[in-house]
Amino acid sequence: LADRRRYIAAIREAMLRPEHLDKMSVDAVMQTGMGDVADKYLKNKVAAELTPGVEDLETSAWSGDDGLTTVEYSAFGVIGAITPTTNPTETITCNTIGMLAAGNAVVFSPHPRARDLSVWQVQTINRALREAGAPENLVVTVAEPSIENTNKMMEHRKVQMLVATGGPGIVRTVLKSGKKAIGAGAGNPPVVVDETADIDHAAKCIVDGASFDNNLPCTAEKEIIAVDAIADLLKFHMVQHGAYELSAEQVKQLEGLILGERGAATEWIGKSATAILEGIGVEPPAGVRLLVCEATKEHPFVQVELMMPVLGLVRAPDVDAAIDLAVELEHGNRHTAVMHSQNVSKLTKMGKLIQTTIFVKNGPSFTGIGIGGEGFTTFTIAGPTGEGLTRPRSFARSRRCVLVGDLNVR
């Protein structure tokens, strides 16, 4: 454990060097074509600072007339980890810290669009580990990420556990592997605003959360359900905080631009609100961070996880109808939901009904992963397999050790 603490401290130090934070943030946007440099800098910083280490591996114990029983966490061995193009460096940082804290080694299969940056990051981590006296090759990847190489990694007999952070396809694949698997899949997080909410605060939170890293995080607000009585006021305040309300004609133009055959058009994922407006020939006003439009619940801007700063707003007659609609639109992903309300009973009702891994109340969505909210940070949020916000104990076996008759000294 002392060795692990030293190794993790070295990783944190390496990933927090200003020049490394700059490189990871700038290169991620350049290589993937997605996201915002300043927001990625913050995400990389909190991944290195707030991902738990060996302190998460708490031992539990019972002692009594029959002796002493302890339950401790131990390593799986080698973990195969698949990382996404949306959070390439952040996921490598938090997975490395968590997996090594639990005593494992890790083989990364990064997204091909982040290949060069991922290889650089793994090399940088290994250099820091070597200087800290760690064994060679605790963290490895392949020079040429591909589906073929990912499949070889998943099938390898010495890979004991698989962790997939990405879309539903890769999560389904690892769940079929026959190995212990953690799946961190997609979401379609709704945000509900009722008539008791602080509307100006809610508007700012939605704009901040939904525009963060150009809406790439799966935790980000993806559609708004507003009680009819406050919907117009909510839109007014959202515009004051950097939103742009699309006209019906602009919505039609945008449908043709950002929607593909199977949902969001890949080339527009993670692009800024200004770039998207320019794509339909609109000169973006200064400070625009988010595009919003009124829509029916069937509209693709409501149903589809676009992963770009474009949100549909659906009106609901009352808060109960809004909650029911939020549950429907979340599509059972059990990922993230947000609600703005001062009514504790309604907040409780939504939390019980929607059953998401993260439920943020009266704040922007990113507070759910420790950015401005209490708690640790992770970028592997396992809704499909139920581990929730992953941490070192997620990557460890639970083992019971029983000593009969002794070491009860009461």
Brief account:
With 410 residues, the chain is α/β, with parallel strands linked by helices. It has helices at residues 2-15, 18-32, 37-50, 88-101, 115-131, 147-155, 168-175, 199-211, 228-240, 248-258, 273-279, 300-303, 319-329, 344-354; strands at 60-64, 67-75, 78-82, 105-109, 139-141, 159-165, 180-184, 190-193, 223-227, 243-245, 259-260, 263-264, 290-294, 310-316, 336-340, 358-361, 381-382, 388-389, 396-404.
Going by helix content, strand content and strand pairing, the class is alpha/beta
| Order of neighbouring strands in the sheet with most strands | 10-13-14-9-8-15-16
Radius of gyration equals 22 Å
Report how far apart the termini are. 29 Å
- Percent in helix: 25-40%
Instruction: Give a count of the beta strands, DSSP E runs of length 2 or more.
Output: 19
Number of alpha- plus pi-helical segments: 14
Could you characterize the architecture of this molecule?
With 410 residues, the chain is an alpha/beta fold. Helices cover 39% and strands 22% of the residues. The chain has 14 helices and 19 strands. It has helices at residues 2-15, 18-32, 37-50, 88-101, 115-131, 147-155, 168-175, 199-211, 228-240, 248-258, 273-279, 300-303, 319-329, 344-354; strands spanning 60-64, 67-75, 78-82, 105-109, 139-141, 159-165, 180-184, 190-193, 223-227, 243-245, 259-260, 263-264, 290-294, 310-316, 336-340, 358-361, 381-382, 388-389, 396-404. The strands form five sheets. The chain has a seven-stranded parallel sheet with strand order 10-13-14-9-8-15-16, sandwiched between helices. It has a five-stranded parallel sheet with strand order 5-4-3-6-7, with helices on both faces. A three-stranded antiparallel sheet has the order 1-2-19, with no helix packed on it. Strand 6 (159-165), helix 7 and strand 7 (180-184) form a beta-alpha-beta unit. Helix 2 (18-32) runs antiparallel to helix 5 (115-131). It is globular and about 70 Å long.
